Amino acid sequence: MTGTETSPAPLAVFRVAFGLMMFGSIVRFWSKGWIEELYIKPAFFFSFYGFEFVKPLGVWTYGLFAVCGISALLVAVGLFYRVAAVGLFLSFTYIELMDKSTYLNHYYFTSLVCLLLIFIPAHVYFSVDAYRRPALFADRIPAFYPNSLKLLIAILYVYAGLAKINSDWLLHALPLRIWLPARNDTPLIGYLFNYPWVAYVFSWVGCLYDLSIPFLLWNRRTRPWAYAAVVIFHGLTALLFPIGMFPYIMIVTALLFFDWEFVQRSGSCPAYRSHGDTVRRTVPLYTPKRLTRIAFTLFFIGQFLLPFRYWLYLGELFWTEEGYRFSWRVMLMEKAGYAQFTVKDDRGKRMVVNNTEFLTPLQEKMMSTQPDMMLQYAHHLRDQFAQRGFRQPGVYVDSYVALNGRMGKPLVDPTTDLAKVRDSLAPKTWITPFDDEIHGF
């Protein structure tokens, strides 16, 4: 094997594990009734800036989840792989973009993985497609493809580690010093969470883990021990914190770093058995073309730069959250608050809004600490109350937010008429100053 070629077995194992995990996630989401709760019942949805065209589908949302689940299963078995990969990316990403209040880092990561899988020949080995069409089969592929996925995983970890190099996380063990005591009922180890020093240990270990684990996984000698650390670390986070599928996604994606030589030696691929040793090739069709390399390069340049867009804003990132999303900042803050909106018009009509009339509990919780969502909601209220007879309604908010255990304070200037503020990527001057500083990345 040359330095530019590698076995397709790791990609095949990853494809199967990732596809089955995605299928299981869709089944779990459906069975728990979350489709109706999150995507059908709400009367209003928070769209992502630039993706306002992504609209809720009502009862057809079940069909969208069905497409996503079927596509995931087809990707896993490698049947109609290219079409299935496109279907998986489009359906999952559409689901993710329907409502900003459900945003999670691992949803974003999953969308990026699905996007890359469209262009990566993960179906040339141990797949139904390779069995049905022997011309697809190859026992060598360009290392460019699996290395692209590994690089994406490394970016996630390293940027998550860099984000932890801040004064709240390392010097004050926040927010873990708030969260861990609430888990003191955990069997065997729960009593330890009452000691502040444990939160510091978790904070420092978490930072060092994120910064080092991709390099330890990439090294053949440290790989088994690194994977054991992946399982222990993410298993513990799954036990302690309600962060959904993220720990399991990272455990599955780490499998990509293994060679899985025994899979290839066993001849477990039907196509491999049928061709035997006479077919030992890297199909020229799978060699990345110049345009493919350029597209992947631009993709990763974007991934390297996007997390640093917060440098374009002057306010404290954790307070304003301008540039916070899509930057691999995982579990870095405890933010709680409330937001009470008042609608007024030029004839003296005035009404205090009951948020439960327009938002679900999850939407209200997420909106009450995120300024861009407050602005979207204010615009929705403006339109709703205009239909109820308010003439040129103005919308004002009394907000009260506490960040990482600090005393709460107003997040938004209560004298600002949010109905007249235009949503854009420009700095939000109507966010109140933080009057503190969190040093670090």
Describe this structure in words.
The chain is mainly alpha-helical. The chain has helices spanning 9-31, 34-40, 61-77, 81-97, 105-119, 128-132, 144-163, 167-171, 176-179, 196-218, 223-240, 246-253, 261-265, 270-275, 290-305, 317-320, 361-367, 371-387; strands at 5-6, 141-142, 335-344, 350-352, 394-403. The strands form two sheets. It has a three-stranded antiparallel sheet. The protein has a two-stranded antiparallel sheet with strand order 1-2. Strand 3 and strand 4 form a beta hairpin. Mean pLDDT is 91; it is low at 267-279.
Describe the protein's topology:
Layout: E1 5-6, H1 9-31, H2 34-40, H3 61-77, H4 81-97, H5 105-119, H6 128-132, E2 141-142, H7 144-163, H8 167-171, H9 176-179, H10 196-218, H11 223-240, H12 246-253, H13 261-265, H14 270-275, H15 290-305, H16 317-320, E3 335-344, E4 350-352, H17 361-367, H18 371-387, E5 394-403
Helix pairs in contact: 1-3, 1-12, 3-4, 4-5, 5-7, 7-10, 10-11, 11-12
Any key phrases for this structure?
18 helices; 441 residues; 3 domains; 5 strands; mainly alpha; three-stranded antiparallel beta sheet
Largest sheet: number of strands, sense, barrel closure? 3 strands, antiparallel
Strand order within the widest beta sheet: 4-3-5
Overall number of domains: 3
What gap, in angstroms, lies between the N and C termini? Answer: 41 Å
Short description:
With 441 residues, the chain is mostly helical.
